[in-house]
Design goal:
The chain is an alpha/beta fold. It has 11 helices and 10 strands. The longest helix is centred in the middle third of the chain and has 20 residues.
Amino acid sequence: MSEYDFRFERGADGVALLTFDRPETLNSLTFDIYGQLERLFHDLEDDETVKVVVLTGHGRAFCSGGNVEEIIGPLLESELDSTLAFTRMTGAVVRNMLRLTKPIVACINGIAAGAGSVLALASDMRVMADTAKFAFLFTKVGLTGADMGAAWLLPKVIGTGRAMELLMLGDKVAAEECLRIGLANRVVPADQALAEAMALARRLATGPGLALGMTKKMVWNEWPMALDAAIEQEAQAQALLLRAHDHREFYNAWMEKRDPRFLGR
């Protein structure tokens, strides 16, 4: 029996494929799945077999968010402390995704709604099928659009004005519009979406992992910083990487007229 309620496959190329696998409910999430995701994204930091993670869904959806019967019903009957423990856990999934110093690529094969939209948003790059849609639909069910870090993340990706619109109205956003506003990095025909995402992930996996991880860390760390603090942080980070193996390997490969062999250190 798998330890997860989704598929998680490690590839020999360093790319791990995480597939939400409850197609009969449009890949909805349960209490257990949230907990499994929280632990997995924490543990992947020390998993040397994984360099890049790809998220996708089985069937017609990427992820439709929390399951109504399995999550919302029980939460309505729970005490406040139990409800808060749940909302903190869902936020911890996103926090662990952002803290993971390995790229995460979302292959959005169908609807990404509610919590599913935030999981896609928390990925570092998003490849969308041309038939897929986003829907930050929390307000449509009487909840705040600020959930799992969405109100912190979305304005940084697409700007405050447009983020306010998507979070308040909860309307579906088609793939081409997602591409236009910067919510998607690439839009491709539906039957090519996973291949495109995997090709992007393999390109990242063969790159300098230490440099990619530091880039991700700097991008998120610098948001609350003043300019001088950000420049100093970048100076310190770059000084370390200038003395790291991968940069020296680049130099040696350049001098020897060959391709570099990055080791991620």
